[in-house]
């Protein structure tokens, strides 16, 4: 796995994996890690509340959250405070520094394997946002060594592999995620993206239709299906899906990507 450079990872994501996958991944990861830290760290009710408040502030007002987390750490806040510092740095867009701190926290942690795997998974996600896929893959692989039965960890590593152009390897990881959790929508959508880039369009459409059969308003799946329709020359169907994405999630990055795709399609159609 070699580091990629050039175009930002978010820009590459519009072509490889549905952008919405990047939009929300911190929310779930932070919640899971927080719950694990509380349950495994022997925290009192008061300490747990302080931790929750710190994380909330770090996400909503990251500059204030960073200062608060540093002060708490210096007063002996331990691992929860150090984790909160990293969350604030993520919210501030300082992904490399956040990832480095999460790596150090995972190395020093006295918590159980589930908690450490969560820290490594977050570090891997931060490395992806810092455009360092090699380090992302490294941390995600370490997390999987600790907790191999977590489907989200397999999806996370598949994202790094896919962004590095290693589509078959990404599909292998997504298959493992789906073995653990059949019908897992996120894994199916990312696998469809990989199939599309391998020009296996029927397999891609099968995965997407399986997702939409469960959730007809899944914007990631609609976005991806629009791409497949566009490749097939079904411009009206592509437009319909992308307009649905905009209606369902206007103001989000995936909606912006859908608007951009419609504009590109209209420009090409008009020039013919």
Question: In brief, what are we looking at here?
Answer:
The chain is mainly alpha-helical. It has 16 helices and no strands.
Please report the number of helical segments: 16
User: Nearest-angstrom radius of gyration?
Assistant: 20 Å
Number of strands: 0
CATH architecture of the domain at 8-147: Alpha Horseshoe
For the record, the CATH class of the domain at 8-147 is Mainly Alpha
Helix proportion range: over 70%
Might you state the CATH topology name of the domain at 8-147?
Answer: Serine Threonine Protein Phosphatase 5, Tetratricopeptide repeat
Main beta-sheet strand count, sense and barrel state: none
Order of helices and strands: HHHHHHHHHHHHHHHH
Stretches where pLDDT is under 50 for at least 5 consecutive residues are 2-40
How much strand content do the residues show? Answer: under 5%
The 3D shape can be described as globular
Average pLDDT, rounded to a whole number, is 85
CA distance, first residue to last residue: 41 Å
**Helix-strand makeup class:** mainly alpha
């Amino acid at each position: 796995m070699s580091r990629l450079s050039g175009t930002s990872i978010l820009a590459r994501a519009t072509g490889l994996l549905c952008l919405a996958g990047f939009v929300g991944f911190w929310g779930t990861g932070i919640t899971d890690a927080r719950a694990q830290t509380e349950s495994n760290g022997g925290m009192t009710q008061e300490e747990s509340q302080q931790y929750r408040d710190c994380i909330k502030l770090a996400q909503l007002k990251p500059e204030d959250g960073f200062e608060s987390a540093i002060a708490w750490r210096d007063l002996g806040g331990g691992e929860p405070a150090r984790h909160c510092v990293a969350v604030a740095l993520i919210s501030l867009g300082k992904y490399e520094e956040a990832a480095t701190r999460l790596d150090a926290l995972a190395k020093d942690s006295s918590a159980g394997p589930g908690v450490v795997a969560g820290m490594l998974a977050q570090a891997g996600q931060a490395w992806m946002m810092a455009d360092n896929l090699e380090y992302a893959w490294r941390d995600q692989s370490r997390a999987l060594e600790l907790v191999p039965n977590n489907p989200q960890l397999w999806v996370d590593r598949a994202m790094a592999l896919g962004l590095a152009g290693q589509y078959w390897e990404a599909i292998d990881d997504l298959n493992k995620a789906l073995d653990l959790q059949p019908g897992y929508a996120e894994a199916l959508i990312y696998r469809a993206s990989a199939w599309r880039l391998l020009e296996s369009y029927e397999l891609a459409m099968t995965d997407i239709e399986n997702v939409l059969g469960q959730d007809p308003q899944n914007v990631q799946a609609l976005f991806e299906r629009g791409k497949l329709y566009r490749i097939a020359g079904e411009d009206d169907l592509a437009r319909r899906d992308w307009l649905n994405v905009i209606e369902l999630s206007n103001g989000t990055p995936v909606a912006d990507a859908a608007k951009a795709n419609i504009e590109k399609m209209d420009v090409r159609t008009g020039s013919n």
